[in-house]
Amino acid sequence: MSRVSAKKLKRALKDWERLASGHSPSPDDLSNAPLLTDWEPRWTATGVMYLIGQVRGHPKLQDGPCSTSIVLAADVQQGWARTLSRYYRLGPQHGETLH
To answer: CA 7: distance to chain centroid?
Structure first.
């Protein structure tokens, strides 16, 4: 795992506190969030969850396969996940078909 800057950690913890108190991400939070499709959860040996899937629109990664940083909070029904690094919009999960 790469080193996390203090600024990124502060922002993630602030979002986590807001989400833990029942708030959902704002439209602004999700407007530029990368889209993760064909995704599925995975866990590290220590039980920490992250997601793998196909990403589109990530500011640092090319479109294609990726794994996220640690998932802090997610709502599959609302279609988002907040990782240590950023928000993701969740598209169809692995094995899901669109009707």
So the answer is: 18
Cβ atoms of residues 35 and 92 within 8 Å:
no
Burial class (CB in 10 A: 0-12, 13-18, 19+), 87: buried
In a domain, 53, yes or no: yes
> How far apart are alpha carbons 54 and 89 in whole angstroms?
12
Average pLDDT of the chain? 91
* Entry pTM: 0.86
Closest CA to 55 of 83, 34, 70: 34
List the domain range (segments joined by +) for residue 21: 6-90
Residue 37 belongs to some domain of the structure: yes
Q: Is residue 82 situated within a structural domain?
A: yes
